[in-house]
From TrEMBL:
The keyword ATP-binding applies. Residues 12-270 form the Protein kinase domain. One of its GO terms (molecular function) is kinase activity. Keywords: ATP-binding, Kinase, Nucleotide-binding, Transferase. InterPro entries: Kinase-like_dom_sf, NEK_Ser/Thr_kinase, Prot_kinase_dom, Ser/Thr_kinase_AS. It is an enzyme of class 2 (transferase). Transmembrane segments: none annotated. Its EC number is 2.7.11.1. This is non-specific serine/threonine protein kinase.
Length: 464
C-alpha cells in the first residue's frame, strides 16, 4: 500500500493523497532530483476485468501515457513520466492547485450558463489539442475537469488508451472503460470511437455543470444502458442559451452531432468577454484579512495582488486526530496547559503572546501554533487577514475550506529581504470543540522537502 514518504522508482517521493478515481489513486509528490512538485497517479485496474484483460490494460497504460505526453496545452494536464513500480503502472503529471468541477457543483449547485460556457471553451481547446496529437480523451466528466486557481479549466485523467491504436486494441478485446453516464452511446453499443465520442461526453459534462445533475435521471437497472434507453437527455431547465449546445452535442447519431467549431462559435457568444474573471476561484471570494504575527515577524498592511497558480506543492494537511509520538519528535505543552503538540527534537521552541513558535536549525522552516478564536466562517476570517498583510511581492496561492472539516487554509508566497522567495501556509485545524491556527513558513525552493514535517506535526495537535 502506498503511503506518504514512499519513494517510487527511486526518484518520486510521495507527500500525501490528492484524489481517488475509478482507475487509481492520485498522490502529491516531489521529484527527488529537482524538488519539483508533481501529481503521481497509480493506475489501478477495475476488478471486474478478467486476468487476461487486466494484463492487456496494464501493458497499454505506459504506452498510451507516452502518447498523452505529446500534448502541450495550458488546458491539459501535462504528462511528465511513465514508469512501472511494483504491480501497477505510475504516471507522473504536472501538479496544478485546483478543485474539480464536480466538487464545485456539489459545493455551489448549478453554475450560471455564462460560467459554464467559459469552462466549455477551455475544454474544447483542450480536446482539440489532444486530437491534434492523435489522442482521444474518452473519459470527459466533471471529476476529470479541474478549475485551477488561476481560472483555467484543465482536463486531466486521460483514459487508459487514447491513441487510435490503443483504442482499437482494447475495443477488439471488448474492453470499454469510462463512466457510463458520460460515455457516448456508440462506444457502448457499436464499439465506434472517434472525436465525436469526446464531444458527447463534453455535452454531458456541461449539462451536469449548468443543471446540477446528470443528463439522464430516469430509473434504470444499468447505467450503461442510459444512452440507448433514454435516446436524448432530459430537457434542460436552467441552461438557457446553452440549451442548443447541450442538445447538439448529445445527439444520439454521431453524424448529426454538433462539431467542435460550431460549439466554440456558440460558446463565445455566451461566455463573458472577460471570461477569466468569471471562472470559479477556490474558496470564498472576499477581499481579505488581518495582520498576523508569524515566527516573530509582524505582517503589516499591503494591498493583495490577484491569485496566481502555485509553482510548487499545495497540500491539504490532515485534521488533527490523536496519534502517538512520532520518532525523532518531542512533546511540547502550552504553558497554560491548553494544548500540546509534537515538534522535531532539534527545533527551537519559543512562547510569546499566546503563540508557540518552533524554528528549525538554520532558521527555516518555522512553525507557529496558537488558539483560533475568530468567530464565523474561517475562510472569511483568513481573507480578512490577507487584506491587511504587508509582505513584499505577496501572491495568494489559495484560500479555501478544508474538505470534510470545519477548517480552512490560506497559502501564499512572498519575498523576504534576507531569505529570498518564501512560501507560507496558515491552516485552521478543528480539534473537538476547539480550533487552532497552524502557521508554516519555508523557503519556496525547499517547500516540497519540508512538507513531510508539517504533515507529521498536524495530527499530533490536541487539547489537554
Amino acid at each position: 500500500m502506498t503511503a506518504a514518504g514512499d519513494l517510487i522508482a527511486t526518484r518520486w517521493r510521495v507527500l500525501g493523497p490528492l484524489a481517488k478515481g475509478g482507475l487509481g489513486h492520485v498522490w502529491l509528490g516531489a521529484d527527488e532530483r529537482t524538488g519539483r512538485t508533481v501529481a503521481l497517479k497509480k493506475c489501478g485496474l477495475p476488478k471486474s476485468l478478467t486476468a487476461e484483460k487486466r494484463s492487456l490494460v496494464r501493458l497499454w497504460v505506459p504506452r498510451e501515457a507516452r502518447a498523452f505526453a505529446r500534448i502541450r496545452h495550458p488546458n491539459v494536464i501535462r504528462t511528465l513520466d511513465v514508469l512501472l513500480d511494483g504491480d501497477a503502472p505510475w504516471i507522473v503529471m504536472e501538479y496544478v492547485p485546483s478543485r474539480s468541477l464536480l466538487d464545485l457543483i456539489l459545493d455551489q449547485g448549478p453554475l450560471p450558463p455564462a460560467r459554464v460556457a467559459a469552462i466549455g471553451l477551455d475544454l474544447v481547446a483542450a480536446l482539440t489539442a489532444a486530437w491534434d496529437a492523435d489522442v482521444l480523451h474518452l473519459d470527459v466528466k466533471p471529476s476529470n475537469v479541474l478549475i485551477a486557481e488561476d481560472g483555467r479549466a484543465v482536463l486531466t485523467d486521460f483514459g487508459p488508451a487514447g491513441s487510435r491504436a490503443g483504442v482499437a486494441a482494447l475495443a477488439e478485446a471488448d474492453v470499454i472503460l469510462g463512466s457510463p453516464k458520460y460515455v457516448a452511446p456508440e462506444r457502448l453499443f457499436d464499439l465506434v470511437t472517434d472525436e465525436r465520442c469526446d464531444l458527447w461526453s463534453l455535452g454531458a459534462t456541461l449539462y451536469h455543470a449548468v443543471e446540477g445533475r446528470t443528463p439522464f435521471t430516469r430509473d434504470t437497472t444499468d447505467d450503461a444502458l442510459h444512452a440507448a434507453d433514454a435516446g436524448t437527455p432530459d430537457p434542460p431547465v436552467l441552461a438557457g442559451p446553452l440549451t442548443p449546445v447541450l442538445l447538439g452535442l448529445m445527439r444520439r447519431d454521431p453524424a448529426e452531432r454538433m462539431t467542435a467549431d460550431e460549439v466554440r462559435r456558440r460558446l463565445r457568444r455566451i461566455a463573458p468577454a472577460s471570461r477569466r474573471a468569471t471562472v470559479v476561484r477556490t474558496g470564498t471570494a472576499v477581499a481579505a484579512a488581518a495582520a498576523i504575527a508569524f515566527a516573530g515577524v509582524a505582517f503589516a498592511d499591503q494591498r493583495p495582488t490577484p491569485p496566481v497558480a502555485a509553482p510548487s506543492p499545495s497540500v491539504t494537511v490532515p485534521s488533527a486526530t490523536p496519534v502517538g509520538l512520532p520518532a525523532g519528535f518531542a512533546w511540547w505543552t502550552e504553558p497554560d496547559g491548553e494544548f500540546r503538540v509534537a515538534m522535531p527534537r532539534d527545533w527551537r521552541p519559543a512562547w510569546k503572546d499566546g503563540r508557540l513558535t518552533c524554528t528549525a536549525p538554520g532558521g527555516n522552516p518555522v512553525m507557529g501554533v496558537s488558539a483560533w478564536t475568530a468567530p464565523g466562517d474561517p475562510v472569511v476570517a483568513l481573507t480578512t487577514t490577507e487584506s491587511r498583510s504587508s509582505l513584499a511581492d505577496y501572491r495568494r496561492i489559495r484560500i479555501t475550506n478544508v474538505p470534510d472539516t470545519a477548517g480552512a487554509v490560506w497559502e501564499y508566497s512572498y519575498d523576504d529581504p534576507k531569505a529570498g522567495r518564501m512560501r507560507a501556509l496558515r491552516q485552521v485545524v478543528p480539534v473537538g470543540d476547539r480550533a487552532y491556527a497552524v502557521d508554516w513558513r519555508a523557503p519556496a525552493a525547499d517547500w516540497s522537502a519540508d512538507l513531510p514535517t508539517l504533515l507529521t506535526v498536524i495530527p499530533t495537535l490536541r487539547p489537554i
